[in-house]
Amino acid sequence: MITSKAAVADGRSTYAIDTIHIQEPVGDEVLVRMKAAGICHTDWDSVRWGKPILMGHEGAGVVERVGPLVQDLRPGDPVILNWAIPCYQCFQCMEGNQHICEKNSAVVAGNKVAGGHASLQSTTWQDQPIERAFGLGTMAEYTLVREAACVRFAHQVPFASAAIVSCGVMTGYGSVVNAARVQPGSSVVVIGTGGVGLNVIQGAKVSGAARIIAIDIRDERLALARQFGATDLIQAEPQDRLLLEAARQVKDLCGGRGADYAFECTAIPALGAAPLAMVRNAGTAVQVSGIEQEITIDMNLFEWDKIYINPLYGKARPQVDFPRILDLYAGGQLLLDEMVTRTYSLDGLTEAFKDMLAGKNAKGVIVFDA
């Protein structure tokens, strides 16, 4: 039995740092000693999922112990954790869509608690079994996960930087490289330059886009966008609620016809259709941020032959994509360290959430054993 401190949401809008107990790993389970956990808006949302849950879905750590059916991991291996856990056997996994595995990554009751977790009896809080957010629960000193949730890495990279690969970096980068397949020499618009938007910018740069136009209302965010690879900046006005004036400026920058690709990264429902206004005829609009509310779209925005896609998690194949991202990092082509604006202890989670909600950080990260 392992005792661990963890962030526990009660399901009724509050959370606490409390003690959990974890059984020894069995089967294909892996006990991971967490070194760093990224902080995301989804983590903040998880306090209202209607049931107690171990918080956190981005993270990196070191394998502590393994179950008898684990094949490729050993104690001491550094790993990045992946929340879209594949089974490798269902229809979608066989189609290459591991991020929407029909067995392990199904959305449960609309609350985004992915399956693929270790035994529900394996972890207890206040003497009751408790689930992990997305089968991970990374905001804890230790967590127990399936082997398929772990991606071993070899590059020398700080754990805080490795941790953010597992969601924000993968979502932004993958939406460009895997989903939209941005072409060299093309023009790209990025609406919203928070953590995900910055990685869309990086993905566009890696893909060889000739023009990368960043749109945000905050000048400090636009300064970051420039650092991460944007070639042009548009500071939107708060009263431009549908970004139609910003779209006009995009068209001026793109020869009057709009960009080849546009990515929405704000999670603001009113901007769900904004990328359609930014792209040329036969261009591609991408909804990256995971808007789930009902929105209204003027179908005239689709004229003519425009494509609108809504990929999940950048169509991640973690065992393929995470190493590629770290290779780009090692080669200086993709920034990770610079994205970690500030680190916190687990006990500092409340402050970390306040900073995130205030837009102070590109990315905040909890660091263990600091």
List the helices and strands and how they pair.
Layout: E1 2-9, E2 15-22, E3 29-38, H1 41-45, E4 53-54, E5 59-66, E6 78-81, H2 91-94, E7 123-125, E8 128-129, E9 131-132, E10 142-146, E11 150-152, H3 159-180, E12 187-191, H4 195-206, E13 211-216, H5 219-228, E14 232-235, H6 244-253, E15 259-264, H7 274-278, E16 279-287, E17 307-309, H8 318-330, E18 342-344, H9 349-357, E19 364-367
Parallel strand pairs: 4-9, 12-13, 12-15, 13-14, 15-16, 16-17, 18-19
Antiparallel strand pairs: 1-2, 1-4, 2-7, 3-5, 3-10, 3-19, 5-6, 6-11, 7-8
Helix pairs in contact: 3-4, 3-8
Question: How would you describe this structure to a colleague?
Answer:
Helix content is 24%, strand content 26%. The two termini are 24 Å apart. Strands 3, 5, 6, 10, 11, 18 and 19 form a seven-stranded mixed beta sheet that branches. It has a six-stranded mixed beta sheet with strand order 8-7-2-1-4-9, with no helix packed on it. The protein has a six-stranded parallel beta sheet with strand order 14-13-12-15-16-17, sandwiched between helices. The longest helix has 22 residues, at 159-180. Strand 12, helix 4 (195-206) and strand 13 form a beta-alpha-beta unit. The chain contains nine helices and 19 strands. The protein is globular and about 65 Å long. With 370 residues, the protein is of the alpha/beta class.
